[in-house]
């Protein structure tokens, strides 16, 4: 008799655990969640790059994070509830983070390309002769000096 009660109890628990997940009333949709996570990870990287003391960096991060939440029109509780909701479906969360990582990698490559172009431009600027400077140098040379080539 006791074993039948345990089996019934386990069946009820199993049925309840298989029921639909409750969707938060203020769920952040996936595309917005991807963009929000990108911004948050960039924020974290920027704060870490400042190499501030821990308490200062925490304060700076929280202010920056709050401005991101304002930009997206979300509250901290919405982010937490949405993240927990997506966390219950690991395939969905994995798909979200795949997009986040791809976007961050693309931004990193673009920044590296910009840095390379800036370095090339600076080198090219150094190689360019400045005609006005050359004429000025010719004018100020004394008659006895030889011209540089």
Keywords:
149 residues, mainly alpha, elongated, 6 helices
Summarize the structure.
By secondary structure, the protein is an all-alpha fold. Helix content is 77%, strand content 0%.
Write the layout of secondary structure elements.
Blueprint: H1 2-17, H2 30-49, H3 54-72, H4 76-87, H5 90-127, H6 131-140
Helix pairs in contact: 2-3, 2-5
Percent helix, as a range, is over 70%
N-to-C SSE series?
HHHHHH
Q: What's the story with the biggest beta sheet?
A: none
The quaternary structure here is single chain
What would you call the shape? elongated
* Rg calculated over all Cα atoms: 30 Å
| Class from secondary-structure proportions | mainly alpha
Q: What is the averaged pLDDT score?
A: 81
The unreliable regions are: none
Task: Give the beta-strand count.
Answer: 0
Number of helices: 6
Strand content: under 5%
Span of the ends, CA to CA: 108 Å
Question: What would you note in describing this structure?
Answer:
Helix content is 77%, strand content 0%. It is an all-alpha fold and 149 residues long. The chain has a domain at 29-105.
């Amino acid at each position: 008799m006791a074993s039948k009660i345990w089996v019934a109890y386990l069946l009820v628990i199993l049925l309840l655990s298989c029921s639909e997940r409750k969707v938060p009333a203020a769920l952040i949709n996936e595309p917005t969640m991807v963009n929000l996570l990108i911004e948050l990870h960039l924020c974290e990287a920027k704060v870490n790059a400042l190499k501030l003391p821990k308490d200062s960096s925490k304060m700076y991060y929280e202010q920056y994070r709050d401005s991101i939440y304002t930009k997206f029109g979300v509250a901290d509780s919405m982010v937490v509830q949405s993240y927990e909701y997506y966390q219950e479906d690991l395939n969905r969360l994995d798909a979200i983070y795949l997009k986040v990582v791809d976007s961050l990698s693309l931004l990193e490559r673009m920044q590296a390309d910009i840095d390379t172009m800036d370095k090339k431009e600076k080198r090219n600027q150094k190689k360019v002769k400045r005609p006005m400077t050359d004429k000025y140098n010719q004018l100020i040379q004394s008659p006895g000096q030889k011209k540089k080539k």
